[in-house]
Amino acid sequence: MAPRGKQKVASSKGDTVQPANPQPPDWPPLAPLVPQEHLSIETVVPGQILVIRNIFTSTLCRNFVSFLSSLPLITTPGKPKRGEATRVNDRFQIDDPNFAKMLWARSGMQYLVSSFGDQAVFGGTVLGLNPNIRIYRYRPGQFFDKHYDESNKLHFGEEKLPAKTTWTLLIYLTTCEGGETAFYPEALKKGERSPEPIVVELETGMALLHKHGDDCLLHEGKEVRKGEKWVLRSDLVVQR
């Protein structure tokens, strides 16, 4: 369970910056893609961290970055709100159920999650991806300090099913120097030394899934030293 009283950033509640135009953008086609049967979920830490390599092809990543560069990104303020971690990046946020549904179905994410051996790890019946889509760009000197991602309640789909988010989804669209996502497990017993950090290196087109909410690991997006780090963000949504 995430320790109380430390810096937290909500999985959706904390991303409150809205674009000037509330209309969803005309996203690039989700093509070309690797056939879903050629993809797999790899476990980094059981029940906590999973990765899917090549969920976006390098060509698709380039097309998305070219398109996303034209969006009205907003730079986060350097001074965080009380109780929030310091985050310095450029971002865009939009509610787009159609894009979330398309990303879930066409990328292979639905196939992989539904066929994953331990369904209980996701915290319930997975309905799809959070329609709250976020784009992050980190330039040299930008970072996301240590924090926890909170679960967010919502009503999902046309049926407005009571739902909540349980896992953060990050799709890395570029690589750069720095910018790794580092996780900090706690010691199992009081007085014991904490385990070494778990560092997930950036890979173009790779999806990182990590559990959030009460069981979220403390983590950070390390400072970018050279180049740009582009990330497409959503969350797994389960019925509650």
UniProtKB/TrEMBL annotation:
Q: Name one Pfam family in it.
A: 2OG-FeII_Oxy_3
Fe2OG dioxygenase domain location: 128-238
Task: Give the source's domain of life in one word.
Answer: Eukaryota
Example GO molecular function term? procollagen-proline 4-dioxygenase activity
In the record, which residues are listed under signal peptide?
Answer: none
**Compositional bias (Pro residues) spans?**
21-31
Q: Which GO terms describe its cellular component?
A: endoplasmic reticulum
Keywords, sorted A to Z: Dioxygenase, Iron, Metal-binding, Oxidoreductase
Tell me the segments the record calls region Disordered: 1-31
**Name of the protein this chain belongs to:** Fe2OG dioxygenase domain-containing protein
Q: Which organism is it from?
A: Cladophialophora immunda
Q: What is the lineage of its organism?
A: Eukaryota, Fungi, Dikarya, Ascomycota, Pezizomycotina
